[in-house]
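Appendix B. Raw example, untouched.
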Amino acid sequence: MKKLELFLSIVFLALTLIGAGYVLYRRGAVSAGYAAVPMVLALVSLLFYRGKR
């Protein structure tokens, strides 16, 4: 379970960077949620990962 949470953290962090790049590419014409939602999910999965240590 611990490895799954670490994997999900990495995936959501990558999605955050991709979403931020997309928002910047579109010059803010799209919602910032493309970057914010994966960031929240990454933080939650990192909290679960660190909680099991």
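End of appendix B.
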